[in-house]
Amino acid sequence: MVLQLVMPHVGSCLPADLAGGGGAGDVMPISITKPVGQGPLARNLPEDVRTIQDALNQVTQKGIAGGPVPLLVVDGLIGPKTNAAILKFQREQVKTINPDGLVEPGKQTILKLNELVAPISRADLNAKLAKALPIAKAALAAAIANLRAVISQGPAPGPSAIAADRLNRHFALNKLNAAAQSDARVTLFETYSEMALVINEPTLFDIFGTNDAFDVDKANAKIALTTSQGVFEPAQDENGDPNKARRIRLGLGFFAPNVTANFAAHIIVHELTHFTGRRDGQRIVDNGRGWFDDVFIKPLSPAARLTNADSYASFAEECRSNSSAKPPFVKTAPGGLGGAR
Ligand SMILES: [Zn+2]
Question: What is the pTM for the complete model shown?
Fold first, then answer.
């Protein structure tokens, strides 16, 4: 059984059944943080309401059925006209649900709005990757250089001491005895090296064939998903779908405006850890999410951090940026694999 991992808007990757997932095609970035419309679930944050009002107007402006006539005033205030426009759109365009007048993040109404008015093209994906991949590669190279320094120079001042301090904060290696520390450094060195090889030389693994290592997932509102140890999976999944097993797939969330190039690179490194696994065969999962000093990371043992995707992504990020300050895009959240971790 192939273990698929999905990264939601915020939080850890979750195992997911991908049956019915989207195929090739466009993905789209109209996104809200809380439900908009009517009913007890609605939060109607002004920025979210404005987003939906504008998106509904675009339906009308593009000449597509289901948009408001006349156009809504885009003022961020929920009211009878906006509520009626949501219901009208659901009745005419979202045939798979009972119209409830509520637009929820990641659900069918907003996916339909994206599909109709804000499609993201393959070119958009490539443009985003063109900015993020060099940063991800630089982060992996920096992590490898740090590990090489500490392995080759031992407890010496300079680069080796800086690297050792980073390893202690991100992986708690100082809680291990000397022999276990030495083993962990070599495992990390080999694991980052393999991740770098996968991202730099994808054709060696017959992963991509083309440069389609990364796919957009039309029906997925999440940020990203991949297959645990997918690099070792057949190119096609059990249903013969070539786009699932050996891919890192990027969903709607990856294209949201808040996903900067650095954030996108962090996501890619995080997903790569799942995709390759640890060099000694261990899966890398989500035991906790966040920076080394975050509440869900601090209690993790060295063993838990050495199999934790965000610990790998955060160490590489610090090695690349030469800053131990938590980047704004790193959020903390509990681990996501439940009993499977
Ligand atoms: Zn994950």
Answer: 0.73
